[in-house]
Structure formats: structure tokens, C-alpha cells
Amino acid sequence: MQYIVLDMEWNQPWPGSYAAKKVLPVEIHGEIIQIGAVRLLENGTVADEFQVLVRPKYYKKLNSRVSKLTGLRDATLREEGLPFPEALERFRKWIGGECVFLTWGFDDIMILEDNILLHDDEPDWITEWYNAQMIFNAQTGCGTSQKALSSAMELLGIEPSRPAHDALGDAYHTALICSRLDLKRGIAEYAQALRNHADGFHGNPPEGCIGRAVFRGYEDKAKAIDAMTELKSHCPQCGAPMPNGAWIAQEGRRYMTMASCPEHGRYLIRIRLQKETDGTLRVSRLIYEGASDAAQKFDELAARRRPARRRRRKRKPTEDT
Questions:
Q1: What are 197-227's pLDDT values in tens digits?
Q2: Same domain, yes or no: 170 and 213
Q3: Residues spanned by the domain of 59
């Protein structure tokens, strides 16, 4: 089995900008602009490399912070970037078959799946992936703290030889770290490492999120949804039970509903279903303030799903009237 060490760069619009207000076919956390990957053999040998620039379709103007961080420019992506479907096809062809994905962090696979769904395709070929940070932490005694890639390299005595915040550069440095880890043991112990890491969440909560939890062990989507429907929501302020509304399905195994407290108003409940390495489903459940951007997006989707009222036809006057 081969390991594919993956890293990506993606663009995000400025909050409040025209691009940020676009209603996309699928909600995404960023649009991919660069894919970098390194093949790592089972014996720990760092093999060949892959990289491609991606021409953004929706967030065409690079966020200035993204541009400064990556060194990429709008003109470069326009001239050298490939449309995402073509870039993805090249990437899959380079992979060549079954693989285990390794990333430094939880975000890359989520972003990749979002972008695949955005372009009307299915990410069902991504069947096995692991956050190399979890394996690194478990085998170096770093606990649950999230080490930056540069800090992990320093800890292992690896000198940087590629540019940072470049998809291929970061993938290459991640591959060097992974080559020094016992990946087979790390994968076997991964479930426990994940449980030790703040219930499987990474980093700070999303803006407007005031509560989150993880539930595990569901056999299929129906049982996971039923369990989340039966789960009692309680007001974060007073603890009063809050009845949930109907779930609105989104792409990428995401669902959301609105709960309401008679005294403190409404709260958005969002869940995401993700497959565990043992084939069961994990549910990440987040609670958002009623005035958050996420709640406003729920309102927009709910409004579009309401059936339009039928206009009453005017009755033609009869001869008797």
C-alpha cells in the first residue's frame, strides 16, 4: 500500500465582500488553488512528487492575505492554473490506484471533498486518510497540542529545504516527518489518538459556534440522523429543552436545523457525518448563535425550499352574473 502525503492551498473571500455573499451550489470553506503531493512508500522512502495550480471558478480574486502567504497571484492562476476537474483528473491519474492519504491537519481532506462536491462529482474514492499530526503527537509525546509543521520539523531535526505555504513544499516536509514515524503502528492506534484530541476537533471553533460535541459508532446514515433527531437540544444559556425543526440536507453529509428557546431565542444545530476507519460514522455536532452567519445561511436555504404559493385564478364571470 502506498501513502500519498497531501497538502493544498485555497482561497477564501474577505468577509462581507461580493464573493463571500455568493450562494454556491455547495457550501465550501475555501476554493482550492494549488495541490501538492508526495508519494511515500511502505518502507519510508520518499518517492515522486505531484503539483498543479488550479484556476478558481467562484472566488476568482485572491484574498490579499492568501496571496501574501503563498506568493501566488491572480495572473499566475489565470495563465497557469487548470480548471479544478482537469487538475483533479491529473492528480488521480498520478496516484494510480488505492492509497492511504496523510495530511498535516484535519482541513485538507475536508476542503478537497467540498471542492469535489462543488464541481458535481463524488469524493467516494477517498476511503482512508489520517491526520499525521495525531500520529506524530502519539509517537513523540506531544500530547494533544497541535504542532506547526515547522515546529515538528525542528523537533525531529529536519532542516527546511522547500518553501513554506507552498502545497508541494509543505507536502514534501510532511513526507519527511512521516518517513520517521511508525505509520503502521500509528494507524493501528489512530482511533485512540483521535479520541485523546479534544473529541476530534481541530483548532478554534468556527465563527458564531458556541458549542460542539462528537458522537461515534453509528452503523449508517439513517441511524446517525435518527440519533441526532432524538437527541434533546438544550438552551446554552438557561438549559431549557429546545425542540428541533426539520433537518435541511446539504452536500458533503451535512445537515442543519433550527432549535428555539422561548426565553433566549433560536440556535442553529449543524451536524456533519464522517466515516471512521472501522467503517462506522462519526457525527460532529455544532451549535451556533441565532444571529451568526451560519444561521443566516440556514434562513436563505429554508426560504428557497418553501413552496411558492399558488396564485388564485380569477373566475370568469358566468352568463348569470
A1: 644 454 556 777 887 777 778 888 889 888 8
A2: no
A3: 2-195
CATH code, 40: 3.30.420.10
CA distances from 63 to 16, 109, 163, 170, 290 (A): 12, 21, 20, 20, 28
pTM of the model: 0.65
- Final residue before a domain boundary, out of 195, 226, 244: 195
Closest CA to 300 of 252, 268, 263: 268
Instruction: Give pLDDT tens digits for 56-86.
Output: 999 999 988 899 989 999 999 999 999 999 9
Count of the separate structural domains present in the chain: 2
C-alpha distances out from residue 96 to 2, 39, 121, 127, 250, Å: 10, 11, 19, 15, 31
